[in-house]
TrEMBL record, chain A:
Gene3D superfamilies: STAS domain. One of its GO terms (molecular function) is anti-sigma factor antagonist activity. PANTHER family: ANTI-SIGMA FACTOR ANTAGONIST TM_1081-RELATED-RELATED (PTHR33495), STAS DOMAIN-CONTAINING PROTEIN (PTHR33495:SF15). Residues 14-100 form the STAS domain. InterPro entries: MlaB-like_STAS, STAS_dom, STAS_dom_sf. This is Anti-anti-sigma factor. It holds the Pfam family STAS_2.
UniProtKB/TrEMBL annotation, chain B:
Keywords: Hydrolase, Kinase, Phosphoprotein, Transferase. This is Histidine kinase-like ATPase domain-containing protein. Residues 3-120 form the Response regulatory domain. It comes from the Bacteria. InterPro entries: Bact_Sigma-Reg, CheY-like_superfamily, HATPase_C_sf, HATPase_dom, PPM-type-like_dom_sf, PPM-type_phosphatase-like_dom, Sig_transdc_resp-reg_receiver.
Length: 100, 550
């Protein structure tokens, strides 16, 4: 499975992405946040396993925020490897996500 | 068994003594009629007690006593002189010769057995002690041997790397004295460096032993280029299962990027990590935000990482609590503030200076705790193994392929191919970037060239969905179209030139640049431009040539 999700301490929703984060995941990624429990306040996208990423992944991340805009959630992208962090940095994603 | 040696020249005396001893249960008696025989017998059948006549032909009792004593050097051997003498001088001479007591003639059974019993107790205690000493010596030898083995393993497992020596100024206690501090340094696949500074609870071998699984796992994880927080999670897991509950490891895990100015830091219990600029001003203070490794369960464990941006020639200081716990007899602990003051105002440039200052501060007293100090002056890492490996592993190559209608319709063909190409030895360090650049260029060629999708869709509120729905529809309906990719690799210049052209009608490049940060698509070319050395779009948008360094 390229995407896994987990609810942590009631209010955090973690989406784990596999080795590749690109357009092939568009449906899976969409599903990963389509039915959020009401208690969720924060979405974390865990990229610890992700080595390959392209701009459609960036689009998917922003699209998630747009679709969930009325829920008042906070967002973070975590465990980025250097190459992935660089892509996020080039695209100034730190403005919209907490990145670590 | 308790063996008694009876030495007397008179048969009758010996017979009486043997009889009395047998009657009271001492059945192991050995008899000798003179000193020489006594010594020979004692060597063959070591006695536990000796009844020794003073006046005998040949060697006297006084001559024999010290020789008998010498035969039992490790354990108390009671010697009771048999004597009819009662003048003070003779008795003193007996004691001086090594005698422990007297049995006077004629023999009194009660007194004789009472005395023997008393000395038997001492002898037995002596024997027990000798045995315990012996096993202690064995244990000690065992410990020493184990120490030597572990020292050997340590020397191999924690071999200080060239990277550490080339780029870091550090101090750590010599390896031969086991200590709970660990300093590890490994190159990252993307040309930077990972650093681990740890301090296990306690001192000595027990605390040092945790260093081995940590260092082994650290090497494996850094080879794979895992993120700092992932490394923290995994090390925590290892130590949680490995260490007893009262042991843990205070540590900082740091990744420094290839420019030497960007740090990802996880600090679990180490003293504040400090960054100083070239003027000596403190620019960042990174207090520990986490519990040490090996304490919290996986669920509770916090892996948030701090990102620090620095400038070249800034200096990073990481140290274990041994330094800040440096004690002045009157002024007290040095503390984090004291360390920072030395670092900032004292213009310290080497770990050794800290060690010297700390020694002066302690007024020469020995340090109480292990101390590790690491300094890094921000500068790009220039690992030349790239070049060395290039000549042996990576050939200059040209690669061309053309994607027809069927390939364009099946999504993963190019992705998977490029992913594999990235694992060619010599290209690994750039595999992520290579993937991004090629897939972006190919997708641009498909979207804007072959499919003629246009960016006006962006203004739509459901832009992302609409765009990709439209894309899928057009791909499915595609009747003809081609995208050609050619790659040229120059291992000497370490440059990859990637050319992508399509059969489309061309498009206006300026039209696809994203207008703001909100747009959900259209940032591909921007990414490529940031990653590559140069990007040129020609033939009215039908051909793009990008050159990237690796």
């Amino acid at each position: 499975m390229a995407i896994k999700t987990e609810q942590v301490q009631g209010e955090r929703w973690v989406i784990y992405i596999g080795e590749k984060f690109d357009f092939s995941l568009v449906t899976d990624f969409r599903q990963a946040y389509s039915e959020l429990p009401a208690s969720i306040k924060h979405i974390e996208v865990d990229l610890s396993n992700t080595q390959y990423m392209d701009s459609s992944a960036l689009g998917m991340l922003l699209n998630m925020q747009k679709l969930l805009a009325d829920k008042n959630l906070t967002y973070s992208i975590t465990h980025c490897r250097a190459a992935v962090a660089r892509i996020l940095e080039i695209s100034r994603f730190n403005k919209k996500f907490t990145i670590s | 068994m308790f063996r008694i040696l009876i030495v007397d020249d008179e048969v009758i005396n010996r017979a009486m003594l043997v009889q009395m001893l047998n009657d009271t249960g001492y059945v192991h008696c050995v008899e000798a009629e003179d000193g020489e025989k006594a010594l020979a017998l004692a060597e063959q059948y070591p006695p536990d007690l000796v009844l020794l006549d003073v006046v005998m032909p040949g060697m006297s009792g006084l001559d024999v006593a010290p020789k008998l004593k010498a035969l039992s050097p490790d354990c108390y051997l009671p010697i009771l002189f048999i004597t009819a003498l009662d003048d003070q001088e003779s008795l003193v001479a007996c004691l001086a010769a090594g005698g422990d007591d007297f049995v006077s003639k004629p023999f009194d059974r009660l007194i004789l057995t009472a005395k023997i019993k008393a000395h038997e107790r001492s002898r037995r205690m002596g024997l027990e002690l000798a045995e315990k000493n012996h096993s202690l010596r064995l244990v000690q030898q065992d410990v020493e041997r184990n120490h030597r083995i572990v020292e050997h393993i340590f020397a191999n497992a924690l071999d200080s790397s060239d990277t550490l020596n080339d780029y870091f100024n550090y101090y750590i206690q010599p390896e031969t004295q086991f200590n709970g501090d660990v300093l590890l340094c490994e190159k990252s696949p993307s040309g930077g460096v990972y650093l681990f500074v740890g301090d296990f609870t306690g001192h000595g071998l027990a605390s040092a032993i945790g260093a081995i699984p940590v260092s082994q796992a650290f090497v494996r994880m850094t080879e794979k280029g895992l993120s700092v927080s992932e490394i923290a999670i995994r090390l925590n897991r290892i130590l949680l299962s490995f260490l007893p509950a009262d042991m843990f490891c205070v540590a900082a895990i740091i990744e420094i990027d290839s420019s030497g100015t960007r740090f990802s830091i996880w600090n679990g219990g180490l003293p504040r990590i400090v960054l100083r600029d070239a003027m000596g001003k403190i620019q960042h203070r990174l207090d520990s935000r986490h519990m040490p490794l090996g304490v919290l369960s996986e669920k509770e464990f916090e892996h948030d990482v701090d990102i620090v941006e620095a400038n070249e020639d800034d200096m990073l200081l990481v140290y274990t609590d041994g330094l800040m716990e440096t004690l002045h007899p009157e002024q007290g602990l040095l503390g984090e503030e004291g360390v920072e003051q030395w670092f900032s105002e004292g213009g310290i440039n080497s770990a050794r200076q800290f060690v010297e200052l700390a020694k002066v501060y302690r007024l020469g007293q020995p340090a109480k705790d292990d101390m590790t100090i690491v300094l890094f002056r921000c500068e790009p890492f220039m690992f030349d193994n790239h070049v060395a490996r290039t000549h042996t592993a990576l050939l200059p190559f040209e690669l061309k392929f053309t994607l027809g209608k069927a390939h364009l319709q099946s999504q993963n063909v190019v992705d998977t191919f490029i992913q594999r190409l990235g694992h060619v030895e010599g290209l690994e360090s750039a595999r992520s970037e290579l993937y991004t650049v090629v897939t972006e260029l190919v997708n641009n060629a498909i979207d804007h060239g072959v499919l003629q999708l246009n960016s006006s869709l962006k203004k739509d509120p459901n832009a992302f969905e609409t765009y990709y729905a439209e894309r899928s529809a057009r791909i499915e309906a595609l009747e003809q179209g081609e995208v050609s990719v050619s790659m040229h690799c120059d291992p000497d210049l370490r440059l990859l030139t990637i050319k992508v052209s399509d059969s489309g009608a061309g498009y206006d490049v300026s039209q696809i640049a994203p207008s703001d940060d909100e747009d959900t698509f259209g940032r591909g070319l921007q990414l490529v431009q940031a990653i590559c050395e140069s990007v040129q779009v020609t033939d009215s948008g039908r051909c793009t040539v990008a050159t990237m360094a690796f």
